[in-house]
Design brief:
The protein contains five helices and six strands; from the N terminus they run ββααββββααα. β5 and β6 form a beta hairpin. Helix content is 34%, strand content 14%. The strands form three sheets. A two-stranded antiparallel sheet has the order 1-2. A two-stranded antiparallel sheet has the order 3-4.
Length: 197
């Protein structure tokens, strides 16, 4: 038994090769003959044809399987309080749903505390707040809302020639060593080097 395929052709003139619609299926009031796919069936109205603007659900197909990031986005957007609660608890607040939306209530025991572990494995909690953990939580919340601050660095470009700098340094040294001389220090330095050769 050969596989049934659509009798239509592609834009290049090759056979379509898609599965034809099931004979007798009614789509938007039209009974399908079963010779063509949804794209090539001339009896179907244009609203029943495959278009890029129509989703699989609109065409009667199986809904698209969501990606993990789409699932995470949906869960975060639907459960804002659960997602933000750890940050606010670290800062010393409980996030609850009030009449006008989410509200913060200050916790009696405060925020994150410093702690240490004994040799026996017991956790010893200090009454002092863990400011490092609180600052980290506050910065993460701020960055989520306002974005991370821009990092910039200052660049200094030296445009003066290295030889000019060396001559200036030499003149300054000669002027310090012989302040009473009226001769320019550079000329004397050149004369000294010529005389020694």
């Amino acid at each position: 038994m050969t596989k049934r395929t659509c009798k239509g052709t592609t834009r290049k003139g090759t056979p379509c090769g898609a599965n034809p619609l099931k004979p007798g299926t009614i789509i938007e009031g039209v009974t399908v003959t079963g010779k063509w796919c949804r794209t090539h069936d001339g009896d179907l109205p244009s609203s029943a044809k495959l278009h890029a603007t129509r989703t699989r659900e609109q065409m009667g197909g199986r809904p698209k399987k969501p990606s993990p990031t789409e699932i995470e986005r949906r869960l975060i957007e639907e459960n804002v309080i659960a997602w933000q609660r750890p940050y606010w608890r670290t800062l010393g607040y409980d996030m609850v749903m009030g009449e006008d939306g989410p509200e913060l209530l200050e916790r009696e025991d405060g925020g994150a505390k410093l702690f240490g572990e004994s040799k026996d494995g017991y956790i010893n909690v200090s009454p002092h707040e863990d400011l490092g953990a609180m600052i980290a939580a506050a910065e993460k919340l701020r960055d989520r809302v306002f974005g991370r601050p821009k990092q910039s660095s200052e660049v200094t470009v030296i445009t003066q020639d290295v030889m000019d700098q060396a001559i200036e340094r030499l003149e300054a040294e000669l002027a310090i060593n012989d302040p009473g001389s009226g001769e320019p220090g550079v000329d004397r330095a050149i004369q000294a080097t010529e005389g020694s050769s």
